[in-house]
Amino acid sequence: MDFSFSEDQENLRSSVREFAKREIAPKIREMIKTRKIPDEIFKGLARMNLMGMTASEEYGGLGADAMTTGIVAEEIAKADPTMSIPVLFLVDNAWTNLINKYGTNELKSEILPDVAKGKSIVGIASTEPNFGSDIGSMTTVAKKNGSKYVLEGEKAFISLIRDIKERSGGFVTVAKTDPSKGTGGVSLFYLPYSDRLDISYTEEMGREGSSWGSFRFSGIELTAKHMLGKENGGFKIIHEGFEFARGLIAVISAGAALSSINNGVEYMKSRKAFGSEIAKFQGLQFQVADDVAKMEAALMMGYKALWTYDQEQKYGRFTRFQVSKQIAVAKLISTTWAFDAISDALQWQGAYGYSRDCPEEWALRGVRSFQLAEGSREIMKMIIARETIGKEYIK
Ligand SMILES: Cc1cc2nc3c(=O)[nH]c(=O)nc-3n(C[C@H](O)[C@H](O)[C@H](O)COP(=O)(O)OP(=O)(O)OC[C@H]3O[C@@H](n4cnc5c(N)ncnc54)[C@H](O)[C@@H]3O)c2cc1C
Predict the structure, then answer these.
(1) 122-228, what's its fold?
(2) Who is most buried in 73, 111, 297, 351, counting CB within 10 A?
(3) Which ligand 1 atom is at minimum distance from the Cα of 161?
């Protein structure tokens, strides 16, 4: 067992940490006010080659694996408690990675160079107004008409929708190509943004810089060029995208919580009550210790999950089910414990903690999204139970 990162990974971590401290952290308040990711942050991420970094080098990316992408995600999460930039980074890279692996060469040459330059963004549009967890009950269809697929449907609660629109990006989307076959009749497409998508926005609880919303579409024609993998083979492939994203969410949540714990501890050292710094109260010290222990364990599980993902992708060392389980364990504990740890860090800061000025208040609302997005905590439990008890016991 070797728990160390490579020298290149350590160098990447330091340069991203520096960049995030210098160019992301000072812009957070502006982002909260304007509810928009400042353009300078987009430019900085692009300059650092962090957008589309999972695209292969031939398309201008870094060909980054999941572990390396996780290191960047953790550092960005420590700089942006709202979770807006981590979401931009994780969604763009997880779904770029899927396109890079399963997209046609024509599609990749067309879109990935701009994604890698940060000019364009890739999102995921799976959820519909009447389904989220249960992909089999999707109603969006892609009807074959000669060499074309004609898409009709509606997608809901889609992250980064405004940014994707403004940057002429697109969505990995999912549609039924053979409705008679249930999940075996589902295909994945890259759906480029166009004004044929009838967009509406939804205000979310946190992640102020991000945007969220739905779109309806009908009569959108795509071709085999836009398909990821094989026709009717989308159900398996989409889970590889979710797993990449879930692994990143695990390290992001742990990174954000560890950062909040540090903020809380700094506050404790300067705040006095009953004649001493509140940091001297063992009741609080033990909470700090519990939270640090949990979040360091969660961070480690996050990296183990990303490592397992890479081992399966590169060397076929694990089965897909083993990867899903490892990822589900990491996402479940990290997102649950992070929310609790951030809530403790808010509590240590008394009334100030509950104010809109306190980064822990931003973080609490941001990190809460991860118990739902890219697979809810209950779905993570279903995966772990399925792999532990057996498929035949899952309804
Ligand atoms: C902030 C945010 C960003 C998002 N961004 C995107 C995006 O970019 N693209 C996208 O496609 N989707 C996105 N989503 C949607 C997200 O993927 C779904 O919310 C999630 O998959 C759950 O689906 P649902 O909301 O339809 O809940 P449902 O599937 O309707 O479930 C409702 C509740 O029941 C629970 N549940 C469901 N089935 C079971 C079961 N068998 N046993 C026990 N409990 C169960 C769920 O866990 C949930 O708590 C986002 C969601 C959020 C909150």
Answers:
(1) Butyryl-CoA Dehydrogenase, subunit A; domain 2 (2.40.110)
(2) 73
(3) 8
Looking at CATH, the fold of the domain delimited by 234-393 is given as: Butyryl-CoA Dehydrogenase, subunit A; domain 3 (1.20.140)
DSSP secondary structure letters along 138-180 = ---EEEEETTEEEEEEEEEEEETHHHHHHTT-EEEEEEES-GG
318 is written with which tokens? 């694990």
Which region holds residue 156: left if phi is over 0, alpha if psi is between -120 and 50, else beta? Answer: beta
User: Can you give the pLDDT at residue 394?
Assistant: 81
Q: Which of 139, 163, 370, 372 to mutate to test the pocket of ligand 1 (most atoms within 8 A of CB)?
A: 372
- Give mean pLDDT, residues 43-48: 96
Task: Give the model confidence (pLDDT) of 293-337 as tens digits.
Answer: 999 999 999 999 999 999 999 999 999 999 999 999 999 999 999
DSSP string, 85-148: HHHHHHHHHHHHHHHHHHS-HHHHHHHHHHHHTTSS-EEEE--BTTBSS-GGG---EEEEETTE
Distance CA 104, CA 225 (A): 6
Neighbours of 372 (CB within 10 A): 16
Say which CATH superfamily domain 7-116 falls into.
Answer: Acyl-CoA dehydrogenase/oxidase, N-terminal domain (1.10.540.10)
- Does ligand 1 lie within 6 Å of residue 202's CB atom? no
Cα-only R_g, the chain: 21
172 lines ligand 1 (CB under 6 A): no
Q: What is the pLDDT of residues 181-225, one digit of tens each?
A: 999 999 999 999 999 999 999 999 999 999 999 999 999 999 999
Q: Is 164 in the pocket of ligand 1 (CB under 6 A)?
A: no
Whether residue 58 is predicted with pLDDT greater than 90 in this model: the reply is yes
Q: For residue 287, report the distance from its CA to the centre of ligand 1, in Å.
A: 31
The DSSP secondary-structure symbol of 319 reads -
Average pLDDT of the residues in 68-92: 98
User: Between β-strands 272-273 and 148-159, what pairing exists: parallel, antiparallel or unpaired?
Assistant: unpaired
At 136 the pLDDT is 85
Place of tokens 């640090």: 292
| Cα(321)–Cα(314) distance, integer angstroms | 16
